[in-house]
C-alpha cells in the first residue's frame, strides 16, 4: 500500500542558506558596481569643482573669515573656459531626452529607468534559483541587504554628496532612499506572507515562538514606517513623520536583530552611515545672532550675522529659530545671496541672508512674531523720538525741517533673535560660468534659489573680472509671482545686481522679467534697471525659444553669426518704473491640441539682450513648485529635440523643487 506522502515541513533557518547568501552578495556587488559607474562618470565634474575650490567648501560648515581680502578685478591672465566639442554635444543632446517628465509622475525618464532597473534587480535576486514556497528566507535576506542603501541615500551628510560633485545633496539622493525602503517592504511582505502560509499549511501556531513573534513585531514596525512616509503625511504632518521615522527605525533594528542574527552584518553599515552623518552635523552646527525683518504678511527676511565663508550660491541651510515656542523645529531655506567676496548686493547685511515665505504654521508664527515685535519697537522708538525732538528744539532752533526729518527717520526696526544653522547642503549641479546664455526661472519663493545664482554669476563676471574664465554674456532672470507687492521682497537685491550688471565696466547683459498672475496694486512695481513686468503666466518653452532667437532686425541672419547689437534699455514710464505689458491668451484653433495653445508671448527678451550668436552653450536653472520644474525640464528636452547638434552648444539643466 503506497503512502500518501509526508506532510509539508516548515523550512529550518539553515535551509538554502548558502544559495541565499550568494544572492545577497550578488545583489550587493550589483548595486555597488552601479554606484561606482555613476561615481566614475561624475569624476570630471568633481575634479573641476575641486580645482575651482567649491567641491568641499562648507564641509565643516559656515564660518566667519577673519582674513577676508578685498576683490581685485583681473584684466589679464584670465583662464578660458573650455567649450564642449561635437562628441560632448551629441552626448549632451542624447542625455537630454532623459529629462522628460510625465505629469503626476514626480520623476523624469532617466530616474524612471533607474528605479525600474533597481526594482528589477531586487525582484530577480528574490526569485532566481529560489523555490519561494519552500524557501521564504530568500526575500527576507534580500530585504536585509537593502538596509545600507536606505541609510547611504538618506543621510544629509552622505559621502555620496561629496563624491558625486556639487548639486547632488541629500534632497536629490532621497529618491533612491524612498524606493530602497519600498524594496525592503516588498521583500518583507513576500517573506512574511510565505512563512505564514507555511505555518497555516502545517497547522503550526503563527505566534508563540520568539522567532515568529519578533518577526511579526518587526513587520508591524515596518508597516508603520511605510504608512507614515506617504506624501500627505510628510506634507501636512512632517514633524510627526520625522519623529516616528527615527523612533520606529530604532525599534525595527532591535526587533529584527532578535528575529534573526543574520541581520547584524547588514545593520552595522547602516549605523556607520548614520553615525558619520551625526558627526558631520555636529561639526556644521552654528548658533548665531540674527535679525528678522518682516516685509509683509507673506515674507520674512532673516539676516544671520558673522557668517562670511563656507558656502556657495545655490546651497541651503536648515534653520532653527529660538523664539515663538518652536525651538524643536528646523526647516530648509535657500541662501539668498552669494558669499561676501562675490556678492553684488549691498542692501542686505554681509553674511547669510534668507527669505522665508509664509507657507505653513511655523513660517506664519515666525512672521507674526516678527511683525508684532516690530510694532512694539516702533512704538517705543516713536515715544523716544518725541522726547528727543522736544529736547533738540529747545537746544538747537537752527535745525531745518528737512534735516530734522533726516535725523529722526531711522530705518525700520529689526527683531534680534538667536538661530541655529545646520549646513550648507545641496547646490547647483552646473557651473553657469561655462555657458554664454543663462536662463534663471523661478516661481514665488523659488526666487531665493535663482537670486543667489544670479548674484553669484554677475559678481564673478563683473565684480571679480571673470578671473576663473567665465564666458557668460547674456542672462535672462524670470520670476513668476501672484501680486505686484511680492516684487518688493527682493527688489533691493535685484536693483543692486542689475546696477552692477549695467555698470560701465560690465560686458554682461542682464534682463529681468517679472510675470504677475494677479492684477492688483500695479503701483507697487519698483524701478529695477532693465526690468519688464508682464501680467501673464508664460510658457517656459516660449521664453527659451525667445532667448535663443535673434532680435527682430536680425531674424534673417544665421543663428551662428556673431552680430552684437547695442544693449537696449527697458521701457520706463514717466515715474521711472518699468512699463507693464498686458498680453492676451490665444484661442484654440480647429485641429490643434489644447496642450499646444500657449500665451501670445511678447518677444521682449530677444529685443532686450544683445545677440551674440549660438554655440556658446545654454544653462537653465528653474526653482519652484513641482509643476514649474517639470515644465522647465520638458521645455529644455523639447528644445534639444528640435535644435541641431551644434546650434546651442552644451545645454545644462538644474531644477530645484520647493516641496517635501
UniProtKB/TrEMBL annotation:
GO terms for cellular component: plasma membrane. The chain crosses the membrane at residues 29-48, 112-133, 145-167, 179-196, 216-233, 240-260. It is a multi-pass membrane protein. Belongs to the ferric reductase (FRE) family. Pfam families: FAD_binding_8, Ferric_reduct, NAD_binding_6. InterPro entries: FAD-bd_8, FAD-bd_FR_type, Fe3_Rdtase_TM_dom, Fe_red_NAD-bd_6, Ferric/Cupric_Reductase, FNR_nucleotide-bd. GO terms for biological process: copper ion import; intracellular iron ion homeostasis; iron ion transport. This is Ferric reductase-like transmembrane component/FAD binding protein. Residues 280-431 form the FAD-binding FR-type domain. PANTHER family: FERRIC REDUCTASE TRANSMEMBRANE COMPONENT 3-RELATED, FERRIC/CUPRIC REDUCTASE TRANSMEMBRANE COMPONENT. It is found in: Membrane. The keyword Membrane applies. One of its GO terms (molecular function) is ferric-chelate reductase activity. Its main location: membrane. SUPFAM superfamilies: Ferredoxin reductase-like, C-terminal NADP-linked domain. Keywords: Electron transport, Glycoprotein, Ion transport, Membrane, Oxidoreductase, Transmembrane, Transmembrane helix, Transport. PROSITE patterns: FAD_FR. The keyword NADP does not apply.
Amino acid at each position: 500500500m503506497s503512502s500518501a506522502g509526508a506532510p509539508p515541513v516548515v523550512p529550518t533557518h539553515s535551509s538554502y542558506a548558502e544559495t541565499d547568501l550568494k544572492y545577497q552578495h550578488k545583489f550587493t556587488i550589483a548595486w555597488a558596481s552601479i554606484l561606482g559607474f555613476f561615481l566614475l562618470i561624475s569624476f570630471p565634474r568633481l575634479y573641476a569643482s575641486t580645482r575651482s575650490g567649491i567641491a568641499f567648501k562648507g564641509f565643516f560648515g559656515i564660518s566667519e573669515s577673519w582674513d577676508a581680502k578685498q576683490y581685485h578685478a583681473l584684466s589679464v591672465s584670465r583662464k578660458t573656459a573650455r567649450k564642449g566639442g561635437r562628441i560632448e554635444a551629441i552626448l549632451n543632446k542624447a542625455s537630454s531626452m532623459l529629462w522628460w517628465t510625465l505629469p503626476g509622475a514626480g520623476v523624469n525618464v532617466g530616474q524612471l529607468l533607474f528605479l525600474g532597473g533597481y526594482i528589477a534587480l531586487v525582484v530577480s535576486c528574490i526569485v532566481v534559483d529560489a523555490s519561494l514556497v519552500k524557501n521564504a528566507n530568500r526575500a527576507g535576506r534580500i530585504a536585509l541587504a537593502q538596509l545600507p542603501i536606505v541609510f547611504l541615500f538618506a543621510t544629509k551628510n552622505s559621502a555620496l554628496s561629496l563624491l558625486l560633485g556639487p548639486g547632488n545633496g541629500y534632497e536629490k539622493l532621497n529618491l533612491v532612499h524612498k524606493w530602497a525602503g519600498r524594496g525592503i517592504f516588498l521583500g518583507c511582505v513576500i517573506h512574511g506572507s510565505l512563512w505564514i502560509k507555511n505555518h497555516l499549511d502545517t497547522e503550526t501556531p503563527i505566534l508563540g515562538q520568539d522567532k515568529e513573534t519578533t518577526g511579526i513585531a518587526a513587520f508591524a514596525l515596518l508597516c508603520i514606517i511605510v504608512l507614515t512616509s506617504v506624501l500627505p503625511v510628510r506634507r501636512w504632518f512632517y514633524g510627526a513623520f520625522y519623529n516616528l521615522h527615527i523612533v520606529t527605525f530604532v525599534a525595527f533594528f532591535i526587533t529584527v536583530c532578535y528575529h534573526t542574527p543574520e541581520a547584524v552584518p547588514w545593520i552595522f553599515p547602516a549605523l556607520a552611515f548614520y553615525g558619520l552623518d551625526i558627526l558631520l552635523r555636529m561639526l556644521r552646527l552654528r548658533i548665531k545672532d540674527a535679525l528678522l525683518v518682516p516685509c509683509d504678511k507673506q515674507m520674512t527676511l532673516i539676516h544671520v550675522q558673522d557668517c562670511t565663508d563656507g558656502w556657495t550660491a545655490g546651497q541651503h541651510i536648515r534653520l532653527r529659530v529660538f523664539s515663538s515656542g518652536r525651538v524643536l523645529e528646523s526647516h530648509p531655506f535657500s541662501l539668498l545671496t552669494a558669499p561676501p567676496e562675490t556678492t553684488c548686493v549691498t542692501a542686505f547685511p554681509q553674511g547669510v541672508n534668507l527669505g522665508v515665505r509664509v507657507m505653513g504654521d511655523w513660517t506664519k508664527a515666525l512672521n507674526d512674531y516678527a511683525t508684532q515685535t516690530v510694532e512694539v519697537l516702533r512704538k517705543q522708538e516713536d515715544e523716544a523720538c518725541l522726547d528727543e525732538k522736544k529736547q533738540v528744539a529747545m537746544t538747537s532752533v537752527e535745525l531745518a525741517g528737512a534735516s530734522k526729518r533726516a535725523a529722526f527717520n531711522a530705518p525700520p526696526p529689526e527683531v534680534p533673535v538667536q538661530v541655529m544653522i545646520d549646513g550648507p547642503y545641496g547646490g547647483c549641479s552646473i557651473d553657469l560660468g561655462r555657458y554664454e546664455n543663462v536662463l534663471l526661472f523661478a516661481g514665488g519663493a523659488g526666487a531665493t534659489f535663482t537670486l543667489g545664482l544670479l548674484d553669484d554669476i554677475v559678481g564673478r563676471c563683473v565684480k571679480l573680472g571673470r578671473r576663473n574664465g567665465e564666458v557668460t554674456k547674456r542672462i535672462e532672470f524670470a520670476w513668476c509671482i501672484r501680486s505686484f507687492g511680492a516684487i518688493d521682497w527682493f527688489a533691493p537685491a535685484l536693483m543692486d545686481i542689475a546696477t552692477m550688471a549695467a555698470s560701465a565696466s560690465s560686458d554682461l547683459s542682464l534682463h529681468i522679467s517679472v510675470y504677475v498672475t494677479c492684477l492688483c496694486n500695479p503701483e507697487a512695481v519698483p524701478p529695477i534697471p532693465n526690468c519688464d513686468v508682464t501680467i501673464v503666466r508664460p510658457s517656459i518653452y516660449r521664453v527659451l525659444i525667445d532667448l535663443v532667437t535673434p532680435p527682430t532686425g536680425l531674424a534673417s541672419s544665421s543663428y551662428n553669426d556673431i552680430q552684437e547689437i547695442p544693449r537696449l534699455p527697458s521701457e520706463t514710464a514717466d515715474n521711472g518704473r518699468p512699463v507693464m505689458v498686458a498680453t492676451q491668451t490665444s484661442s484654440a484653433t480647429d485641429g490643434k491640441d489644447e496642450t499646444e495653445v500657449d500665451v501670445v508671448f511678447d518677444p521682449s527678451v530677444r529685443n532686450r539682450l544683445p545677440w551674440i550668436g549660438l554655440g556658446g552653450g545654454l544653462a537653465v536653472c528653474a526653482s519652484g513648485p513641482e509643476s514649474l520644474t517639470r515644465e522647465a525640464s520638458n521645455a529644455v528636452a523639447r528644445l534639444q529635440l528640435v535644435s541641431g547638434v551644434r546650434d546651442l552648444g552644451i545645454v545644462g539643466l538644474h531644477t530645484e523643487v520647493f516641496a517635501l
